Amino acid sequence: MKFSENWLRHHVPTRASRDELAATLTAIGLEVEDVAPLGDSLDGVIVARIVNAKKHPEADRLQVCDVDTGNGIVQIVCGAPNARAGLVAPLATVGANLPGGIAIKAAKLRGVESFGMLCSAKELGVDPDASGLLELPDDAPIGTPLATYLGLPDASIEIKLTPNRADCFSVRGIAFDVAAALGSEVIPLDTTPVPAQSDATMNVVLDAGARVPRFAGRVIDNVNANVKTPVWMAERLRRSGLRPISFLVDVTQYVMLELGQPMHAFDKDKLEGEIVVRPARTGEPLALLDGRTVELDDDFLVVSDSQGGRGARAVALGGIMGGSDTRVTDDTRNVFLEAAHWIPSAIIGRSRKLGMHTDAGHRFERGVDPQLPGIAVEYATRLILDIAGGVPGPLLDVTLPEHLQSPKPILLRRARLARVLGLTVADAEVVRIFTALGMKVEALADGWSVTAPSRRFDIEREEDLIEEVARIHGYENIPTHTPAGALTLAAEPEARLNELAVREQLAARDYYEAVNLAFIGNDVLQRWGMTEQLVPLANPLSADLAVMRPSLLPGLIVALSHNRARQQERVRLFELGRTFHIGEAAVARKDAPTETPTLAIVACGAAQAEQWGETARPLDFYDLKGDLDALIAWGGEPQRWTVHADSLPGWLHPGRSARVARDGHTVGYLGALHPQLAKALDLGPDVHVLELALDPLLDRRLPKAQAVPRFPAVRRDIAVDVPEQVSWSQIEHAVRGSLGTALVALRLFDRYSGKGVEAGRKSLAMGLILQDASRTLTDDDADRCVRNAVAALEVSCEAKLRG
């Protein structure tokens, strides 16, 4: 929310300096993000008129102007493109010092004397526009100090509002907080009804139920739409971040900023029949003020008229933007003012759905005072009549009383207030705070009954009232007490690794940790083929953050891609986070989605960092599998883990990837990205990924003490010929299953394929380390173990013993 400092002071008189005002706003929860001083050093700058302008004899881009200062004519050399006879503009006279340290002196420019400088808005420090001279209205009084005429000095203050403080999206809303904090009072708003001077009106039908419970309006005939927006109004709009457009539009913007009620002005002559507020129809088109034509659905609300039938034509998008067909123009003579109350749930997310953001939608999404529409129409009517004339009709205020709720009294207990704040606030101070905030207070024996104004949606319970007292009384006045109590240290479970250990292990293996948002876009997931069991957000921040992530990999790959685009060829990232899924049964039962702690790794480029000790080679599947093996070994029991080249998801390369299982249950995948996906993501073929559930990885074997073996181990080496598609994990599983506890280690020490081995098969040589805790194994024992292992391999792996 941006506003003019002088505008705020107009509503709440205070002697506080600008710095004190900014500090107070921040202290009471309205955080000041920026204070831009305007026109602080304008002594010697006056309103002047160019009487005559002729080309400079020695410079094509300069003009020699005769300028009326109200006290005579002076000669000014000016290079502004809009300098012309009759223009009223600011003149910095000789001796003036402009913002930025510019001192004005008499000078000669290309041989022609100049006694001052005609100024742009930027040179005066009142606006960033430097395209030409600041053009003032023709009726501006010549010779008047510019600061007096423009209401300067001033400052444009921008505050950051939390979503619960929708009432502060207006100057008057902020004024109540400032009055309470600085011990002042808000000047009452003139709400005297404007008497009707005609019977002109429009019939309004509310056909959207609780979503639009109030609609106020008024017809004003014979308005002079060509009247210039007064300087005081235009400047307040400009200093609040809005550009003046035309008077009728500016009035609605001005009322929105001052009172907080968005409004719209229709050209009444372009409306037909009655006004109907209704849900939009699916596929219904609407031409908006921004020049776009959008197609709506029944999730939107519209204001419609009777062109083509009752409620047939949509003329405005409810709570967001007006339509271009019925907008006011310079030719408008008869106006229909509209101010409605749209509840937040009817507006939230609709603007983003159309890829737009409007001030009206921003306010209605957070909540607007339901009592404001009639007041806003009366206030805007008075401004229009005072400035542009016209004949007003009666105020139209259509309501659905059953859907309008009045604030209810809330009990604030004196003892509860003291207990929560840790100090006693005087009764008079409590009453003063609530009264200054516009609340009704009734004293009770044990506290107060407080009724918040209708604009304060955030006041719902006793704790909210306590917060108001703390906020205005001053957080700095609340004593600080060190909490007392014994803290118990939680014991780390021995059977589970800490996540920090995983992070340290990966960092030691040359990976960098990444942290991504838990939201992702539907379009990204479509590319990955991740379209099932998704958890969509009801009110996403943007279309790129519309779904809870079902996997960590898409986000990590985006981070990898950003690094690749910045000349980082070797990228190694990991992330520990939660993924989210929801099944059909959970949807039917309205259960919460399943959250799974997950580890993901992405890597590309060279296997080793650039060096001279080893020949450079690209990263491959086995490098990533080695990292996985290191993590598994960290927790112990590697024999419970297996890697299979089957049942792969579509985003993995079918020939360079594998499924990871623990105790036979799939826990993740690793390998190269599928070539089609890598091409779609504009990545090279060298990107490898790993993703698996974190909990199985964190489980570890408890250390157990056992005696050192008294009897020697026996080793037997065998070589078997197996099909190429048989994995080592299948072979290991078969051998361990056949030998049981007699096998203490199994070591693969050779792999061969080529001459002497059938095509499609491979030869694996392995060492069987055998040992018995109760005796020394004999040759017969060792030979029997070899026979059992070979037999198991022949059955389960189609193996042949090689001689």
UniProtKB/TrEMBL annotation:
GO terms for cellular component: phenylalanine-tRNA ligase complex. Coiled coil: none annotated. SMART domains: B3_4, B5, FDX-ACB. CDD domains: PheRS_beta_core (cd00769), tRNA_bind_bactPheRS (cd02796). The keyword Repeat does not apply. SUPFAM superfamilies: Anticodon-binding domain of PheRS, Class II aaRS and biotin synthetases, Nucleic acid-binding proteins, PheT/TilS domain, Putative DNA-binding domain. Residues 405-480 form the B5 domain. Keywords: Aminoacyl-tRNA synthetase, ATP-binding, Cytoplasm, Ligase, Magnesium, Metal-binding, Nucleotide-binding, Protein biosynthesis, RNA-binding, tRNA-binding. It comes from the Bacteria. Mg(2+) binds at D458, D464, E467, E468. Binds 2 magnesium ions per tetramer. Residues 709-802 form the FDX-ACB domain. GO terms for molecular function: ATP binding; magnesium ion binding; phenylalanine-tRNA ligase activity; tRNA binding. One of its GO terms (biological process) is phenylalanyl-tRNA aminoacylation. Belongs to the phenylalanyl-tRNA synthetase beta subunit family. Type 1 subfamily. PANTHER family: PHENYLALANINE--TRNA LIGASE BETA SUBUNIT, PHENYLALANYL-TRNA SYNTHETASE BETA CHAIN AND LEUCINE-RICH REPEAT-CONTAINING PROTEIN 47. This is Phenylalanine--tRNA ligase beta subunit. The lineage of its organism: Bacteria, Pseudomonadati, Pseudomonadota, Gammaproteobacteria, Lysobacterales.
